Model the fold of this input.
Amino acid sequence: MKLSSDQLLARLRQPGNEALAPIYLISGDEPFQLGELADALRSCARRQGYTDRQVFFAERGFDWQSLSAEQDALSLFAERRVLDLRLPGSKPGDAGSRALRAYAARPPADTVLLVTTGKLDRSQARSKWVTELERAGVAAQVWPVEAGRLPRWLQSRMQARGLDPDTGAVQLLAERVEGNLLAADQAMEKLLLLYGPGPVDTGQVIAAAADSARFDVFSLGDTALSGDTPRALRMLFGLLAEGVEPAVALWALARVTREASRLAAAGQTGAALDGAMTRLGIWDKRKPAVRAALQRHSQEHWHRLVRCLARADRVIKGLEAGTVRDELIQLVTGIAAQGAQEWVRH
Done:
């Protein structure tokens, strides 16, 4: 059975928990939510008398026979037990696939198998070991909380703790912890400790929450394409502060700029935009931002930005005088600007 991460979390935390399934498969690449779900399951299991736990790290060289042996063994310490299998690479290999399928075919009584793994791509999600674990138990995949959903996610979590934030407090906290849900959770706990349950305003957030935003370099270019200049610049500054090399940030900006330049040129020849985006391998999720950027800027504007990329590359390599940070700022604002007249290349 498949459940969303929120559905599974609610089930595990509700009073008077229903009987646990024999198998739980939790996957995803967002570590805070993955750990939160796994912790909730372990806590629920303890409340129901599963007091024995065996932990397995299925890394390179792992002996899958040890899982099979536990499947056939009785616990020496408790009537009920949890087998906690951690699969970092999302690919158990042939031996692991066989062992997991065999387990799913006859899960032992009074035992819960918890499998936590990284994000499953489309082909992995359809593999036999995954589908057979799903059929025998419960599967949930966690997804990163995107910027647009983060304020609502924060507000819900704060209210569950007895905090009543105003709109400004939620927005400020979202800006300070974007991409770092662990920092978000810690900030909420700190607010509760400092001020107790009740209203929360921006001043309290400023006092309690450090700027802990963590950004993904792959999102930098798409954020600029969307036209959100303040957020794109905040991402750029955050990435540089985290130690991301300027050349990597430039690569992210170059990727979207060259895509847009090619699409603008294709549009001049009468090519259908959707078809051109598909040929360039642009995912459906990214297409609205790309389309919006093409509507804002002319083909010549994109050509100028491509030339700016070359200059920024030379500055980064020390082949031309200039300030690396300023070059990257110019590129971000050039992509995100609402019109060519708002962007002047110095």
Notes: The longest strand covers residues 50-57. The longest helix spans residues 246-268.
